[in-house]
Amino acid sequence: MFANAYPPDIDEGVLDIMALPDGANYLHWVSDTNSDGRQYIGYRAGKYLKEEALKNSNNDILDMSELKVSEIVQTCRLLDNFSCLSKMPMNGPDKSTKFPLPNYDKLCFLKNIITNPNIIVGDYTYYDDFEEVMNFEKNVKYHFDFVGDKLVIGKFCMIASDVTFIMNGANHLSKSLSSYPFAIFGNGWERAMEGKSYPSKGDTVIGNDVWIGYNATIMPGVAIGDGAIIGSNSTVVKDVEPYTIVGGNPARSIRKRFDDETITRLLELKWWDWEIEKITANVDKLTAGAVDKLGS
Predict the structure, then answer these.
(1) Of 38, 47, 172, 238, which residue is the catalytic one?
(2) CA gap 26, 67 in Å, rounded
(3) Does residue 259 sit in helix, strand or coil?
(4) 217-239 per-position pLDDT tens digit
(5) Looking at the chain, which terminus has fewer C-beta neighbours within 10 angstroms, N or C?
(6) The domain containing residue 197 runs over which residues?
């Protein structure tokens, strides 16, 4: 797609699409010859690097960290010739980076900012927050270590700002005469819970490729299936079937995204577990509607 994206003052020479450095949204390697006749290749990512920026005393890999374009350009190599230049296909953003979009720190790959061991997040799942991505853990409410429940989120999920997860630490007694938590205050009330326990609905589990809209609330112990979509401002109080769109308070099924045959096939394929090279080769098909073309 970038075949004609050469700098105007550079001959086409040898050009290959290479792996993206962190933060870049596109990248070319271009060839040229510097003033002493030595050939080089360098990144073209967002802006073309001038020849003088490539020089060092040893003609080795150069540290570009001092450049203003350091967010998109990490290194460049000087080569005597291009016989050793091999093509390395781009395979998406680095899953280990915190902020995969250049110059934007309101969206993160969630796995890379989580500190709570009871929150488990899959690769490429992102969280977008209007203010600060570290708000995510603050929005996982009543998640007490002594309760031990987990929030498990799959791969390639999309979580919007102000989504809240209510965990089991919020639960009170509901079948007793009073719901008041006498025991936690002690001072003679400790015995209130002898032989009893607060209700727990287990772990909250979000599948893969799930989109959770702005300001949605997920209640304790809910399981949301792969490919589901949760509408903005919804309150999800019960399990959501795979590839189902739900909305409202309490959230109710609006419709299935696909017919049963397509849903069954997608759940069999589990594309989110493919090697990233295969996913990359299929991104145009994943953003279309023909499941039979996936993987081909």
Answers:
(1) 172
(2) 18
(3) coil
(4) 999 999 999 999 999 999 999 99
(5) N
(6) 107-257
pTM: 0.71
Is residue 172 part of the annotated active site? The answer reads yes
**Number of structural domains, the chain?**
3
Could you tell me if 122 and 242 lie in one domain?
A: yes
Q: Is residue 102 part of a domain?
A: no
Question: Is the N-terminal amide bond of 220 cis, ω within 30° of 0?
Answer: no
Q: How far apart are CA 157 and CA 40, in angstroms?
A: 40
Contact 261, 284 (CB under 8 A): no
3-state secondary structure 54-92: HCCCCCCCEECCCCCCCCCCCEECECCCCCCCCCCCCCC
C-alpha to C-alpha distance for 150 and 173, rounded to whole angstroms? 21
Q: What are phi and psi of 111, to 5 degrees?
A: -55, -30
Q: Quick check: is 99 in a domain? A: no
Query: Environment class of residue 40 by beta-carbon count within 10 Å: exposed (0-12), middle (13-18) or buried (19+)?
Result: buried
